[in-house]
Amino acid sequence: MACGEYGPGRMAEPVAILASAEAMLSQGPLSGKTVLVTSGPTLEPIDPVRYIANRSSGAQGTAIAVALRDLGAKVLFVTGPAEVPPPAGVKVIRVETARQMLDAVQAALPADAAVMAAAVADWRVANAAGSKLKKDGTGKAPALEFAENPDILATVSQMAKGRPRLVVGFAAETDDVVAHAVAKRARKRCDWIVANDVSPGTGIMGGSENAVVLITADVQEVWPRMAKDAVARRLAQRIAEALA
Ligand code: C5P
């Protein structure tokens, strides 16, 4: 490290080393199991300096990774550029775009379960510029064209070979939350959907609490509003029961 502060030779923070050691040594209900988690937003470039993103903080996905790790799972954490730093004691794979996230997920599999908590951009800019777009003095704005991104959750749910035994998706909705989430579960063919209402009044997107409905083939369970950490622990517990 030429600067002495930053680089691969720098010792990790002691708390991070402790978390990693605990994760490796813990004998929880998910010991010996591998769980892939996607988290955070994706960024879709417009040109080399500009991008389109969304308001996902990565808080819920990060909390899920922590809860799974604490139950003993080996966690493969594929994350877009989130506000919340990735947890210690998990394998962190950083990506920016949805297509990079899909590639990273496919490269990281196999896993016993996959939890897709990322807020993946539905569209990318199809005519992204290779060099910075400039004003040309005419007052005319550039026209962006969009192309649909691959659906990572649907792709993993429908893998013919090597599909994780349990695939969990999220459904952030602003209206008819349960009906839309039930339809989403069927369309994407994941096993469970964690549905939540992200209407502006709820303060859920970017906030520290969540109110979710867990939708499986058999049940629709309304969970009380609680901290995202608590949602994560309850979900991790359910995943452990399902994989047991
Ligand atoms: O269709 P919608 O974006 O509402 O679905 C949300 C769920 O699908 C989340 O689990 C999200 O991580 C996943 N998803 C994905 N790839 C996409 C879009 C959504 O994995 N391109």
Q: What's the name of the CATH homologous superfamily?
A: CoaB-like
Our count of helices gives: 6
CATH topology heading? Rossmann fold
**What is the alpha-carbon Rg in Å?**
19 Å
Quaternary status of these chains? single chain
Q: In CATH, what is the class? A: Alpha Beta
CATH architecture: 3-Layer(aba) Sandwich
- State the helical fraction: 25-40%
The overall pLDDT, averaged over residues, is 93
Using the alpha-carbon principal axes, give the shape.
globular
Key attributes of the depicted protein:
244 residues; alpha/beta; Rossmann fold; 8-stranded mixed β-sheet; two-stranded antiparallel ribbon; 28% helix; 24% strand; globular; binds cytidine-5'-monophosphate
Written account of the structure:
Helix 2 (59-70) packs across helix 6 (228-243). Strand 2 (44-47) and strand 3 (50-52) form a beta hairpin. It is built from six helices and 14 strands. It is α/β, with parallel strands linked by helices and 244 residues long. It has a single domain, classed as 3-Layer(aba) Sandwich (Rossmann fold). The strands form four sheets. It has an eight-stranded mixed sheet, sandwiched between helices. It has a two-stranded antiparallel sheet with strand order 2-3. Strands 7-8 form a two-stranded antiparallel sheet. The chain binds cytidine-5'-monophosphate. Cytidine-5'-monophosphate binds next to helix 4 and strand 9.
